[in-house]
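Handover notes (outgoing to incoming on-call)

Open items:
1. Phosphoribosylglycinamide formyltransferase: sequence verified, structure written out, both below. Nothing else pending on this one.
2. Nothing else urgent.
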Amino acid sequence: MARKRVGVLISGSGSNLQALIDAASDPAYPAEIALVVSNKADAFGLQRAAKAGIATQVFDHKAYPDRESFDAAMDAALRAAGCEIVCLAGFMRILSRGFVEGWAGRMLNIHPSLLPSFKGLHPQRQALEAGVKVAGCTVHLVTPDLDDGPILEQATVPVLDSDDEAALSARILEQEHRIYPKGLALLAGGAVRIEGRRALTG
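Phosphoribosylglycinamide formyltransferase structure tokens:
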């Protein structure tokens, strides 16, 4: 089976991008990273992509008059590269409804909470402030509503009495690196079907 071509959107260090690159280095993995796009020219993830021989493009969101024109430029680049799936990996821009709908069922995100709890910014801090005993991360399909799409994978970590935001975030990140490649493999391998709000992978 031909491997699915994937575009990854980043804004920063790209540690989840690296996890996807590492997974895709196995010829048996059902996806290959075809393009990495960043809205920041100094994002370290661009260096990770270049080291792996992956094409990169930078689109400075400040250079566009509105969200729609910025998204249209990224969309054109992804489609020109033959991308069939888009993965968000620390991409710190809200995407327009048109962009999201154009990739419906083919765009993934990784979020550092057990969705639907603690959506939005600083979910690890939200978890600590709520006093939960278990936190974690979620791989989900992207919909126009923030952090709200069908869930493909989740992983849990205990919240320790000694945790602060940085410590909890670091342990969650380890699990992000483990489950994001699994979620992409499910989608790229055609193992996902949607029933209502549920992503069934069995």
